[in-house]
Amino acid sequence: MPSHRARRPLFVAAGALVLLVALYAALGYLAAPSLLRNALVQRAAAAGYELRIDKLRTNPFSLVADAYGVQLSRNEKPLLEARGASLDLGWPSLWRHAWVLDRLALEAPVLYALPPLAKAGEEGAGAWPAVVIRSLQSTDGTVRLASLPRLEKLQLQARDFSTLEGHGNGFQASATLASGGCLRAQGKLSALPFQVSGTMELADAVLAEAWRYLPAAAGKAPPGRLSGSLDYRYAEGRLSLSKGNVRAALDSGGELRVAGSLAVLPLAGELELHAEAIPMALAQPLLAGPTKLELVGGTLSGQGKLRLGKDSGYQGSLAVREARIDGPQGELAGWQSLATQSLRLAFSPFSLRADEVAAEAPRVRVAIGAQGDLNLAFAFADGKSDARGEVPDVSISRLRIEAGRLDFTDRSLESPFSTTVQELTGALTELSTKSRQPARIQLAGRVGEYGEARVQGAIDLTAPSTRTNVALLFRNLALADFTPYAVKFAGYRIRAGRLNADLRYRVREGRLVGSNRLVFDKLQLGEKVETASALDLPIDLAVALLTDAQGRINLAIPVSGDLRNPQFDLGGLIAKALRNTLGRVVSAPFRLIASLLGRGGNEKLDEVRFDPGSASLSPPEEETIAALAKALGERPRLKLSIEGGYDPQADGKALARAELLRELAQRAGYGAAAGGSAPSGIDPRDPKIVHAAERLFLSRGGQAIDLSALEPRRPGYGRRLLDVLAEKTNLEGDSPPALARERAETVREALVGRGVDRARIEIAGAVEAEASGEGVPTRLALHGS
Q: By C-alpha distance, which of 331, 455, 414, 780 is closest to 589?
């Protein structure tokens, strides 16, 4: 057992050790927090950062420091703050120019921004603080980076994290998104050079969080959720994504799946796309600009490959279903399905190729407004300029149409007009905006209940005003449906009838040449309607003149015009041509009748001529009556009015002479001819007639000396005597008008005798008419029934 003197050095050593430990403890617990805070603040300041620690506690024996109210900022802008931080300081920190932490645990950290990245070997302001963290843990963290969705409840575990060159770490993290959903990631991270790689999984995130990374033209995100996984790598300022498998599920029921690899800055990659029922309304922002179109409905589905990069494009299938496009005046177009299995899209420059596109139940609405504005033109007008951009390169080998529909409405009329072409089927082939090969059109559909419409021909889509050849055929259209147009242009309603039309139009170098052949069957006009826009023509007469014995009207109406003329109006051209055609018909109705009978330009069918004083038809006039009866038979809608004509002078003389001859015949003992004509076979040289004339002359107060003055012995004495007697023969006052009425009756009876219905012939009365070498005319006029 050591002596008291021997134990004394031990006590001194122990006491000194205790004193040193107590001093170390006192310094560690009392002075170290302040020293450590100052050191950390100075190191942060040297790196260009402001560090604030509200409270710091240290354990000098375990080299553990607990900090509270930690805030790291740069240029007075917060970068990181934490409610608490626990530091397990490594001994190498005492002699190295870097803080070495065996463990760092952060409680409720909030990351506001990332410090600027320093390049390898860079020090001083702008560089990250030199830190080595063997183990990093974070609980209940929050990420509020401006460029990323807000993350909450962040749990992070990292190993060997360092801001020094050559260090890399593995990490695992999980968090929830403030907007919903959760995120899990794992991988490796290096600060110098800065690079990160790993795998990320996203579950049930709000689609709007990803949508905001799209260009502003993409518009508002649809309601939906985003899930998926991918491998990522960021290095040297370039982000690349691989093994991606992402699914966007829309609340509307649509779905988009993307799988593949992608490189960012520059953008490149190849992705497999599968879309199902994606709302077409998402493309509405792409229509912003000169058009006024609105995608009201429709969904998009498809499957194919999307290439991004130098030759970006899409190849695969595409189907747009239940779509509807509206303009400022309502619906313009829509379809049940528009689909192709062979779509090839290029994005820069844009081009579209498809072998066949099938359109099921497409519908187009064409409407003319009250002021004559066309809904299609109004929807595409920007009201700023007439400048046109480059026409996109579009080529479709065949566009097949099934069960289509065309609705047409015209509100510019006093009574709005509407019609529908239904069951529209056919195809448009060789559709191209670049090729000079004309597109071929062949369509057929039902008009109204029993009508038919066909369209066929060719149009050069690159220059439709230069090369177009189109034929439109209409069969069995119900004319009553077109009453609003009949009221506007003709001033009549249509009671019944059918229309067949063959319309053919050719365009060459801006010049339109068209032929319109119209066949009206059993047309029946209704009541007349007073309207300022109606043709100032006797339409009922025109209809009667043109309607044949089978109840048909055949009209050929050629039109032509210059499409380059700003005032060009096809409807106006057709209306003008129709007006000219009808005008020629009603201005010379008998010329038309003569042409129908093969008599060329002979217009004498409008009158029948009689010898003065006679109401008997001559053989030539009987031929006229026969021709007229035939024409009336071929035009059963026509009515005829007869104006009996008389010449007071010529007919008066003829009637007086006839009266004289009848009396002389009686005096001479001859029988008189019946009727108003002169007795037949009366010869002024006949002695009996001459003797009877002399006695009549004397009985009427004549003198023998007057007879001597007529030179009885000179030839022609009998004629001179009859002329004198005729001048002194008095007639009843209405004898010439009565003759005119008799002539009208003669014409009517002759026509009736040849099969013309008496009800179609009207006697209009007696009128004066000047006689000519061909006789006294009785004039005829035609009317519509």
A: 780
Q: Measured in whole angstroms, how far is the alpha carbon of residue 617 from the centre of its chain? A: 66
**Pair of tokens at residue 63:** 């080299």
* Token duo for residue 357: 């596109």
Question: Does the predicted model carry a pTM greater than 0.85?
Answer: no
The confidence band for 353, taking pLDDT boundaries of 50, 70 and 90, is very high
Residue with tokens 């826009």: 533
Assess contact for 575 and 489: CB atoms under 8 A: yes
d(CA 463, CA 10): 114
Q: Name 229's bridge partners.
A: 201, 245
Neighbours of 573 (CB within 10 A): 17
Q: Which of 606, 598, 609, 601 is nearest to 628 (CA)?
A: 606
Give me the count of residues in the chain.
Answer: 785
HSE toward the beta carbon, residue 392, CA cutoff 13 A: 12
Query: What is the SS3 string spanning 681-695?
Result: CCCCCCHHHHHHHHH
Residues 268 and 247: beta-carbon distance below 8 Å: no
The answer to whether residues 441 and 396 touch, using CB atoms and an 8 Å cutoff, is no
Four-CA torsion 597, 541, 591, 595, nearest 10 degrees:
-30
Secondary structure of 454-488 in HEC code, one letter for each residue: EEEEEECCCCCCCEEEEEEEEEEEEHHHHHHHHHH
Which amino acid is residue 164, in one-letter code?
Answer: L
Residue 640 near residue 782 (C-beta atoms within 8 A): yes
pLDDT tens-digit series, residues 459-512: 887 776 677 888 889 899 898 888 887 787 778 888 998 989 888 888 877 777
DSSP type of residue 30: I
pLDDT in tens, 69-88: 888 888 888 988 989 888 77
Three-state DSSP at 619 gives helix
Model confidence at 552, pLDDT cuts 50, 70, 90, reads confident
Report CA torsion sign: 56, 57, 59, 65. negative
Q: CB burial class (10 A; 0-12, 13-18, 19+) of residue 387? A: exposed
Q: Which residues contact 77 (CB under 8 A, 6 or more apart)?
A: 112, 113
Half-sphere exposure of 350 (CA within 13 A, CB side): 5
Residue that is written with structure tokens 């009425």 in the block: 741
Burial 536-548 (b: 16+ CB within 10 A, else e): ebbbbbbbbbbbe
The helix (H) or strand (E) run that includes residue 77 is strand 77-89
